[in-house]
């Protein structure tokens, strides 16, 4: 058994001092420092007031550190998985782009291979987030227009063991039927859509659970036509939010917090392969993306993902909403696990949950990352073998 001592332990939505966290692959117990069975502890991480948090879960991430999900290789998925440890990410959904069916299925095959392997050297691959190709061309954003197609249930059938989350536009042919038929198998999120409020509402009633990157690539809110944004802000659906201070003006974060509360917001990065790299030109779904500062854009100025790292997004949201960290941390792991139907095993520091931890200093820099009880990253030593 292993132990973490000396940290500020976040559980039950509060920080606790003078607690010892005992774990192996899963969390065994949380006890008072002076009541811990120390004779059973074989390894101990001794902290000096660092924050011990549930590992971050990123539901929308295309790539990182010059690798992309659409590379379609096991090596790329593993490299992303490994590199994300430095950001405290312990679980993620590799996210596909709107490309040819052959390229999408190649990426899904790679994700399946990693899931079915004994790979345990990085963040846990929970499955795939399929962003497109079942979207509206009018709101394609940085997705490839020529590869947008009506809903194809054959992909869903062939990869129902891999796909966890599907972003689609509810107004396109076959979408409503697919949501109603498959919502017990997949999580559907409305995105890249020109849907009216009524169409979006029908999509939710059919079984969709959330919206993809709120405000971006969706019908905006108007006082006569509330659109998808209006639906998202006035119902209890889940909503992804990219807090890089570019996708959404940071003054809007507080509006979202006020409207949604802390139990339905999902902080995501939408990071591309340029994450963790220098400014320059990068590929995203077969399109050239210019990265300069925090901006990732196509040649025509269209936003094309982000280079956001997860702790930075948390800092941005917390700073601009002035919300307490205890509340914001629900949006980094617990909400994600609930959204995916995995809250019994992921997302919180509680007995019988996987021992997935992000440990950060008071400036919110990651110092340790632990996945399934294995210490895989420290700030001082870098990436470690399991």
Characteristics:
alpha/beta; Urease, subunit C, domain 1; TIM Barrel; nine-stranded parallel beta sheet; seven-stranded mixed beta sheet; 25 strands; carbohydrate metabolism; metal ion binding
Summarize the structure in words.
With about 375 residues, the chain is of the alpha/beta class. It folds into 2 domains: about 1-55 and about 350-385, Roll (Urease, subunit C, domain 1); about 55-340, Metal-dependent hydrolases (TIM Barrel), CATH 3.20.20.140. It is about 25% helix and about 25% strand. The protein is built from 10 helices and 25 strands. It has helices at about 75-85, 100-115, 155-160, 175-180, 195-205, 225-235, 250-260, 310-320, 325-330, 335-340, and strands spanning about 1-5, 10, 15, 20-25, 25-30, 45, 50-55, 55-60, 65, 65-70, 90-95, 125, 130, 165-170, 185-190, 210, 240, 265-270, 280-285, 285-290, 295, 355-360, 365-370, 375-380, 380-385. The strands form 5 sheets. Strands 8, 11, 12, 13, 14, 15, 16, 17 and 18 form a 9-stranded parallel β-sheet that branches. Strand 24 and strand 25 form a beta hairpin. Helix 5 crosses helix 6. The chain is globular. The two termini are about 15 Å apart. Belongs to the metallo-dependent hydrolases superfamily. NagA family. It comes from Tindallia magadiensis. Its cofactor is a divalent metal cation. It catalyses: N-acetyl-D-glucosamine 6-phosphate + H2O = D-glucosamine 6-phosphate + acetate. Keywords: Carbohydrate metabolism, Hydrolase, Metal-binding.
């Amino acid at each position: 058994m292993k132990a973490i001592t000396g940290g500020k332990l976040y559980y039950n939505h509060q920080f606790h001092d003078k607690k010892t966290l005992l774990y192996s692959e899963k969390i065994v117990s949380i006890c008072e420092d002076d009541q811990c069975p120390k004779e059973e502890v074989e390894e101990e991480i001794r902290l000096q007031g660092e924050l011990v948090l549930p590992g971050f879960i990123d539901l929308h991430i295309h790539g990182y550190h010059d690798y992309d999900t659409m590379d379609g290789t096991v090596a790329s998925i593993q490299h992303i998985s490994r590199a994300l440890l430095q950001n405290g990410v312990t679980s993620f959904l590799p996210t596909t782009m709107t490309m040819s069916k052959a390229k999408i299925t190649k990426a899904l095959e790679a994700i399946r291979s990693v899931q079915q392997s004994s790979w345990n050297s990085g963040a846990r691959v929970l499955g795939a987030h399929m962003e497109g190709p079942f979207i509206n061309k009018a709101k394609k954003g940085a997705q490839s227009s020529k590869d947008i197609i009506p809903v194809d249930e054959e992909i869903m059938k062939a990869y129902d063991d891999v796909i966890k989350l599907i972003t689609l536009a509810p107004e396109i042919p076959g979408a409503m039927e697919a949501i109603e038929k498959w919502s017990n198998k997949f999580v559907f999120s409305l995105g890249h859509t020109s849907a009216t409020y009524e169409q979006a509402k029908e999509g939710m009633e059919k079984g969709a659970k959330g919206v993809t990157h709120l405000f971006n690539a969706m019908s905006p809110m108007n006082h006569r036509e509330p659109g998808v944004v209006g639906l998202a802000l006035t119902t209890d659906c889940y909503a992804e939010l990219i807090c890089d201070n570019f996708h959404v003006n940071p003054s809007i974060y507080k509006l979202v917090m006020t409207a949604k509360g802390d139990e339905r917001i999902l902080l995501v990065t939408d990071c591309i392969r340029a994450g963790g790299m220098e400014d320059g030109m990068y590929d995203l779904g077969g399109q050239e993306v210019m990265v300069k500062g925090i901006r990732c854009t196509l040649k025509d100025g269209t936003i094309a993902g982000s280079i956001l790292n997860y702790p930075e997004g948390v800092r941005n949201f917390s700073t601009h909403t002035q919300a307490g960290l205890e509340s914001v941390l629900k949006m980094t792991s617990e909400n994600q696990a609930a959204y995916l139907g995995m809250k019994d095993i992921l997302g919180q520091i509680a007995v019988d949950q996987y021992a997935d931890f992000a440990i950060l200093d008071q400036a919110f820099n990651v110092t340790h990352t632990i996945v399934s009880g294995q210490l895989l990253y420290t700030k001082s030593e870098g990436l470690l073998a399991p």
